[in-house]
């Protein structure tokens, strides 16, 4: 793709959607914390919702008061116990308020569909994919965004900066399951080192994928181990830098005979652009609208 692009000498401020749909409201009944990541861990709790097997079995027979007591009191306490690093992320409540909840992944087409209408197949032919937008709370340095640079040999977006992720496979528990599996395969990130927060809006890539971003907190003790066939480098960029509108620009180009534009951040030694920059833009706008 890169060989077909012609960059001009000028750039202009982004002209993009100024608002995104509100996050899906929680269902009124029956209340459930299930996020479709249904595996019982060594501690006897579901890896997705943190309910015990006995609580899951009793759930249909519980009244709404008991369900709410578990969802609003017991389960958050278990989450803090399992993912203590979650408490270090100062932005966690703002993020949760701005994102689609884990138990309700976003539906619909990608927010950038109109930009790619003449390039993509019909929605039914799009491949489903997911990425992990990992936020690392660093003592003294603040929150960092974890990014990878793909190896040049990869078929899709080789050599580009991206979030860990990939295609949703038949055995995955939806977008969340795919994002966790791909992150483990690409950079050896264990599920116990991740505390998912919610979803961003789906985004369509020029290669024909409908990508659902999963925003999550990553344990700062995690040590990246990139898979040499897929990931050339793992690095971090300050969250505040990427959430500043002044650091994002829109670059004009020509692709398949028509003027196009892509988003881009300037960061020393790395070019953060395209789908990755657009996902970060979506996150920034959601936080701004939530405020």
Structure write-up:
The chain is of the alpha+beta class and 291 residues long. The protein has one domain (2-23, 97-290): Nucleoside Triphosphate Pyrophosphohydrolase (Alpha-Beta Complex), CATH 3.90.79.10. The protein contains six helices and twelve strands. The strands form two sheets. Strands 2, 3, 4, 5, 6, 7, 8 and 9 form an eight-stranded mixed beta sheet that branches. The protein has a four-stranded antiparallel beta sheet with strand order 1-10-11-12. A hairpin with a 2-residue loop joins strand 11 and strand 12. Helix 3 packs across helix 6. The longest helix has 19 residues, at 64-82.
How does the major sheet shape up?
8 strands, mixed
Q: Under the CATH scheme, which class?
A: Alpha Beta
Strand content: 25-35%
So, the CATH homologous superfamily?
Nucleoside Triphosphate Pyrophosphohydrolase
Helix content: 10-25%
Tell me the radius of gyration. Answer: 19 Å
- Strand pairing plus helix content: what structural class? alpha+beta
Q: Assign an overall shape.
A: globular
CATH topology: Nucleoside Triphosphate Pyrophosphohydrolase
Give the number of helices.
Answer: 6
Number of DSSP-assigned strands: 12
Total discrete domains: 1
Overall pLDDT: 85
CATH architecture group name: Alpha-Beta Complex
- Order of SSEs: EHHHEEEEHEEEEHEEEH
Distance between the termini: 37 Å
- Low-confidence region ranges: 1-15, 25-29
């Amino acid at each position: 793709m890169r060989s077909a692009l012609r960059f001009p000498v000028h750039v202009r401020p982004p002209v993009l959607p100024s608002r995104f749909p509100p996050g899906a409201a929680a269902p009124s009944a029956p209340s459930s914390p299930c996020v479709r990541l249904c595996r019982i861990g060594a501690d006897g709790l579901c890896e997705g919702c943190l309910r015990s097997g006995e609580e899951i079995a009793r759930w249909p027979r519980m009244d709404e008061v008991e369900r709410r007591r578990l969802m609003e009191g017991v389960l958050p306490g278990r989450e803090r116990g399992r993912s203590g690093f979650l408490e270090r992320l100062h932005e966690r409540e703002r993020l949760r308020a701005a994102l689609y909840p884990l138990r309700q992944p976003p539906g619909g087409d990608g927010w950038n569909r109109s930009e790619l209408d003449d390039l993509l197949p019909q929605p039914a032919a799009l491949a489903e994919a997911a990425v992990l937008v990992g936020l690392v709370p660093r003592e003294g340095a603040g929150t960092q965004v974890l990014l990878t640079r793909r190896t040049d040999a990869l078929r899709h977006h080789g050599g580009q900066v991206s979030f860990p992720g990939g295609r949703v496979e038949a055995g995955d528990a939806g977008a969340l399951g795919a994002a966790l599996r791909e992150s483990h395969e690409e950079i050896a990130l264990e599920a116990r080192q991740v505390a998912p927060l919610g979803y961003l809006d789906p985004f369509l890539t020029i290669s024909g994928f409908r990508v659902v971003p999963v925003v999550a907190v990553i344990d700062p003790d995690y040590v990246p181990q990139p898979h040499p066939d897929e990931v050339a480098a793992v690095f971090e960029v300050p969250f505040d830098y990427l959430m500043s509108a002044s650091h994002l620009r829109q670059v004009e180009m020509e692709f398949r005979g028509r003027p196009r534009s892509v988003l881009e951040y300037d960061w020393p030694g790395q070019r953060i652009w395209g789908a990755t920059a657009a996902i970060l833009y979506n996150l920034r706008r959601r936080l701004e609208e939530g405020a």
